[in-house]
C-alpha cells in the first residue's frame, strides 16, 4: 500500500466505475463518501483502505484494558453497497496477548485474507471469538499481519481519548453539523400539526437527509408516549424514543431525542426529532419536503 499522497484523486463516479459498484447503499453504517473520493494508491486491489489514526484508543473487556494504543490502524472496507463502518486494529505490542487464546476458528471470510479468531479471558470472564488477526494477509494489506482487531459488539467499552464511543469508530470522512436555524419547520402527522417551530437545530450528516431537532415547547407532546427503545450513534450519543398516538392510530418510535450528547452536537440535547419519511408531511419555509432516497436508496443509517 502506497503512503504517497501526491497521486491523482479519483472522483466518486470514477471509483464506483472502477470497482463495479452498482445499486443503493442500504446497510446500516455504510457510506459511499470518502475524501475526494480516496486516492487510488490507498485502496488495495481487494478494496481495503488502511490508514494510521492519531487517536488514543482503548478497548475494555470486563473492566480490563485489553488494547491500549496511540498508533492504531483504521481499516475501511469497500463492499458492494458502499463503505463499511471502519474498524480499529491494534499493534500486537499494544494488546494484552496473555489474555488471548486461539479459538480454533480459521475462516477465509475477510477481504484482507483468512481470519483467525481468539477468545479473551478477562478477570474470570470468557469472551468467545472476540479478537481477530490476519496472519497471512493478502497483497496490499500486509501491515495487518502485525495487528489485532476486536469484535466491536463483544467489548464492554471503547474509548477514544477519554470519551466512550458507540457502535463503531468515528469515521474521519463522516461529518456531522448541528446548526441552529430560523427556518420555519412544520410537521404534520395523523391530520394534526404535531410540531411547528422557527427555531430548529438542523443536523446535516454526510450522505444522510437533514434532520430537524425541535424544542419540546414547539411539539404537541400530548400526542407522545415514551417507549423503552434506545439506540446509540457514534457521533451524537444515546437516543430515547417516543411513539405518537393520534386519531386511534399509533406511530411507533417515530420521535427521538438525545438527552445527553457528545460535545460536538450539544445544541440538539433534549430536542425532539421526527422521522421525516414516516410523517404525513414536513414543510420547510412553507414548502413541502419532497421524499428523497439518500445515497440512491437509504433514508438513514443513524438518527
What is this structure, in a nutshell?
The chain has 303 residues and is mainly β.
Describe this structure in words.
By secondary structure, the protein is an all-beta fold. It folds into 2 domains: 12-164, Domain of unknown function (DUF427) (Metal Binding Protein, Guanine Nucleotide Exchange Factor, Chain A); 176-296, Beta Complex (Metal Binding Protein, Guanine Nucleotide Exchange Factor, Chain A). It contains 1 helix and 23 strands. It has one helix spanning 12-19, and strands spanning 48-52, 57-61, 64-69, 73-79, 82-83, 87-91, 100-110, 113-122, 125-133, 147-150, 157-160, 163-164, 176-180, 185-189, 192-197, 201-205, 211-214, 224-233, 237-246, 249-257, 272-274, 281-284, 287-288. Strand 7 and strand 8 (113-122) form a beta hairpin. Mean pLDDT is 82; it is low at 1-41 and 294-303.
Determine the structural class based on helices, strands and strand pairing: mainly beta
Shape estimate? elongated
Using the coordinates above, name the CATH class of the largest domain. Answer: Mainly Beta
Residue windows where pLDDT falls under 50 for at least 5 positions: 1-41, 294-303
Rounded to the nearest angstrom, the distance between the terminal CA atoms is 35 Å
Amino acid at each position: 500500500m502506497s503512503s504517497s499522497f501526491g497521486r491523482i484523486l479519483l472522483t466518486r463516479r470514477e471509483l464506483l466505475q472502477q470497482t463495479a459498484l452498482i445499486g443503493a447503499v442500504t446497510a446500516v453504517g455504510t457510506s459511499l463518501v470518502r475524501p475526494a473520493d480516496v486516492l487510488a494508491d490507498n485502496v488495495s486491489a481487494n478494496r481495503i483502505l488502511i490508514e494510521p489514526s492519531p487517536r488514543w484508543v482503548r478497548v475494555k473487556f470486563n473492566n480490563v484494558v485489553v488494547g491500549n494504543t496511540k498508533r492504531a490502524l483504521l481499516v475501511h472496507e469497500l463492499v458492494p453497497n458502499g463503505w463499511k463502518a471502519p474498524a480499529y486494529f491494534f499493534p500486537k505490542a499494544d494488546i494484552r496477548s496473555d489474555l488471548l487464546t486461539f479459538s480454533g476458528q480459521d475462516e477465509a471470510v475477510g477481504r484482507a485474507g483468512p481470519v483467525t479468531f481468539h477468545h479473551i479471558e478477562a478477570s474470570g470472564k470468557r469472551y468467545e471469538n472476540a479478537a481477530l488477526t490476519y496472519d497471512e494477509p493478502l497483497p496490499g494489506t500486509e501491515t495487518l499481519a502485525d495487528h489485532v482487531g476486536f469484535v466491536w459488539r463483544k467489548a464492554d467499552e471503547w474509548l477514544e481519548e477519554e470519551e466512550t464511543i458507540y457502535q463503531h469508530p468515528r469515521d474521519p470522512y463522516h461529518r456531522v453539523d448541528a446548526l441552529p436555524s430560523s427556518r420555519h419547520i412544520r410537521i404534520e402527522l395523523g391530520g394534526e400539526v404535531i410540531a411547528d417551530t422557527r427555531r430548529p437545530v438542523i443536523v446535516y450528516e454526510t450522505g444522510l437527509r437533514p434532520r430537524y431537532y425541535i424544542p419540546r415547547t414547539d411539539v404537541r407532546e400530548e400526542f407522545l408516549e415514551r417507549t423503552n427503545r434506545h439506540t446509540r450513534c457514534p457521533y451524537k450519543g444515546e437516543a430515547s424514543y417516543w411513539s405518537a398516538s393520534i386519531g386511534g392510530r399509533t406511530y411507533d418510535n417515530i420521535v427521538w431525542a438525545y438527552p445527553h450528547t457528545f460535545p460536538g452536537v450539544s445544541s440538539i440535547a433534549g430536542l425532539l426529532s421526527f422521522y421525516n419519511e414516516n410523517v404525513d408531511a414536513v414543510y420547510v419555509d412553507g414548502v413541502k419536503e419532497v421524499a428523497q432516497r439518500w445515497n440512491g436508496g437509504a433514508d438513514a443509517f443513524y438518527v
